[in-house]
Amino acid sequence: MLACKSVPLIEPISRRRQHSHLVTGGIFLSVMLVSMFIGIPNQVHAQTVNMNCTLIVPRNPLSATGLATPYILQATNPAEGPCREANPMQSAFVQAAVVNPKTGFLAVYNPLVIDQGMRPAAKPVIPTIPAGSVVGIWFGFNGAVLTLQGAQANTLAQGNCVNGLPDSPFGQFAYCNAVSFFAAANQGIRTGTIVPPALGRDHKGLPCPTTRSFFIVDQDQSDNVTTSYLISPRGRLAQNTAANRNALANATVLTNPSDNRLLISIDAVLGCTPWMRPDLADPGHFTTALPLNELQAAAHQPSPMALVPSNDPMVLVMRNNTFAPSLTKLNLYRVGVDQPEARTLWEASPRAYCLNLVQIAPYRLAIDAPLLGQGATPDAAVGNTLFTFMAQRYVNTFTKPLGTGLNCMNMFQLQPRVATVKNGEDVAIAVLITVNGQKRCFNSLGIAAPIKACAGAKDTSTPGPTVHA
Prior knowledge:
The protein has 11 helices and 25 strands. The chain has helices spanning about 30-40, 65-70, 155-160, 180-190, 240-245, 260-270, 290-300, 325-335, 350-370, 385-400, 410, and strands at about 5-10, 10, 20, 50-55, 70-75, 90-100, 105-110, 115, 135-140, 145-150, 160, 165, 170, 175, 230, 235-240, 250-255, 275-280, 285, 315-320, 320-325, 420, 430-435, 440-445, 450. The chain is an alpha+beta fold. It folds into 2 domains: about 5-300, no CATH class; about 350-455, no CATH class. Strands 7-6-9-14-11 form a 5-stranded antiparallel sheet. It has a 4-stranded antiparallel sheet with strand order 2-17-15-16, with no helix packed on it. The chain has a 4-stranded mixed sheet with strand order 8-5-4-10, with no helix packed on it.
C-alpha cells in the first residue's frame, strides 16, 4: 500500500528486482491509479489485472499436513478476471512459524501457494512439528485486497484467522493464530528458553534497525512476509529450497515485497545480521521471517519504538466516503504482529508517529547514506540505488494523503526535511537532507555533493532542532 513498496518481477535466482504497489486499506484505488506508481511492465496491462484475489486456506491449517497442503489462489470475483500466482502483481505468500516455549524450539516454514487447478512443481515438504508446539501463520499479497476463505466452513475459525473487519479487510495482510503464537514465544523469552539476538551496530556505529525503527517504517509498517517461491519454466510453483533449486533448472524466484524483506536488504549493506531460524522445509538451512523480526524488535528496539499508528492505511475504514480511524481494526492488526493494543486512538497518535519519523529518518539517512548508496535499489522506478529509494520512500510516506501515505506534512504542518532530485523518468537520483539546521546534498551513491547538485530538489524543509537516532 505504500507508494514505494515493491511488487517483484519474476526473475532468475541470481537477480531479484522489485516493483512498487499501492493499496489504500479497506477501500482501494483503481488499478489505473496503481499503475501510476508501480511501473507495471509493458507486457502487463493494468486494466486487465484483477487486483483482488482470494486464498483458500486448507483444512487443519495449523497442523503439519495443513501446512504442507498448498493454498489455492483464485479470483474473489471471477468477472474481474483471473488471479495467477505467477503474475507478480497478484502473487500471494504464506509464512508460518512454530514455537515450543518449554524447549525453546523455534523454526520457520513457508507453505506453498498455487493456482486453482494446477499442481506444484515439487511436492511440498511435510514439516516435523514437535509435540506441544504452537503454530502461527501470516500472509502477504502483491495485489490490493487478499481475502481468506476456508476449505471448509469451519477452517478459518479453526485456524483463528483474521483478515481485518468483516466489511473492511486489511488489504495485503492477514494472519492465523498469531496471537497464540506470540503468547507462547514471549513466554519462552520470559523464561529464557528463547533469546532474541542483540541488534548489534552498523558500520557507522549506530544500532542496527528493526521493523519498529523510525528509520525503516513507512505508512504501513510490519506488513507482508519474507517468503519466496520458485517458478518453473512451465509456470508451476515450488517452495524455495536447496533441493528444489537443484531440481528445477532455470527456475525463477517470486518474492513478496515488504518492510520485512526490505529490512533484510538494509541489514546486508549496513553490516547487520537478521535473526534467522531453521527452515522446516529446507533441512540444514536457516531463514528470516516476519515473526522473528517482530519478536526481535519488541525485545531490542531502542526508544522511540514505532507501533502501528491510527492513520496506517491498512487500519483505516471508510465512513461517508472518507478515511477514518478504527480502534478495533487497529488493534486487530497490532496483535497480529505482537504489538500492544491501544486503549484509545490517542495512544496511537499519528502526530507523535510523524514527529518521530521526521526527527529520526532524515538523520539516519544522512549518516548511513554511503552504506545505502552501495545497495541495489528494490525498485528502479523509484530510486536508482537503495539510498535514493529509501529517501523517496520516506518522502512519499510523509507527504502523500491518507490512504496512500501518512499525510504528516498537511495534517500537522511538518516538513519532511528530505527532498529528492529526479531524472526525466521520475526516478530519484540525488537527495537533499536537512539535519541540525544544515542542508546537505548527496549523490545516488550517498556521497556528499555540492549543494548545486541538488538544485532540482523540491525542498520545502525548514531547519530543525538537533535530533538523534
